[in-house]
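Box S2. Input/output pair 1.
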Amino acid sequence: MEKKKSHYNLSLIKKLIRLKQYRITITASDNAEQYFGLRGNDVIEEILNLETNNFYKSMTSHNNHKIWQDVYHKPIESKIAYIKLQIIDEKTVVIQFKEK
């Protein structure tokens, strides 16, 4: 399922990150480095710089249709990042960070 309205409040996503309540999947970390040369804190800074107009869509997880994931498109240098986020157990999870 998809919808054009964010499922999670971007301010809450950022607040949890600032409170160190986040995790980055290995896939997201590896892709951020491969496509953009970003590591750890660089990835987090890019997410903290997201704006509501970077929102693209919300979609349910492929594995569980009850879990929503918000997708953002963000310009980074000459590329567009595809960033997929969700909140689970009061933590922001960076699921994907790859080139669109």
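Box S3. Input/output pair 2.
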Amino acid sequence: MTTRRKKIYEGKAKILYEGPEPGTLIQYFKDDATAFNAQKKAVLEGKGVINNRISEFVMTKLAAIGVANHFIRRLNHREQLIKEVEIVPLEVICRNIAAGSLAKRLGLEEGTPLPRSIIEFCYKNDELGDPLVTEEHITAFNWATTQDIDDIMAMTLRINDFLTGMFGAVGITLVDFKIEFGRIWDGDFSRLILADEISPDSCRLWDSTTNEKLDKDRFRRDLGDVIESYTEVARRLGIMKDMPTVIQGGLH
């Protein structure tokens, strides 16, 4: 099925195919796992299935509270129909607790709560290692306008508030997350909507009681049980009932 369709783009974790009607794409979730700008790679059977389902769940919930996003509907275990957007070349990172590169960069102990949520921007470019950029860079190189940045920050904080509560209710601490935005056009006017995915690949999620990592850091840091941890996130969110075969490795 996937070989006959026109491939538009292939990233580290997903493939985008031409959609069935204009203005749509099919987003396919791979089992490939990468870290350190793809220097570390593995195939984790079932990861794409779980991420597809978790991202569907989160995007649907966000749409219900008025956060416009690219998700239209899930097509099958690995694919969803999405709106075609013009991606803003920025990775938007929202941090609530010091972890990962922020902890390293500022000499903070991992797990230190931040004084307030911090939003960072990285230029989306794998060859350069997605470098950190400022609003000055973003406007100077015309990646986004000042108004775009205001809109992105407002939407990101809204998403953070919602996700913090949603995960908190099932005993998971939202440490940080990375999102992307895209433009959709209506004639000469464009508006920004949330794109890409929200899953344990793009969020740091810790068990609220034990601080056990339930996200991609398990792969980055060789902690093992990656699929089991992703599955646990899905189970706590109440979306495991449709995916019983993932754990048994029976889904391809």
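Caption for Box S3: The chain has two domains: 7-85+226-247, 86-207. The domain at 7-85+226-247 is CATH 3.30.200.20 (Phosphorylase Kinase; domain 1).
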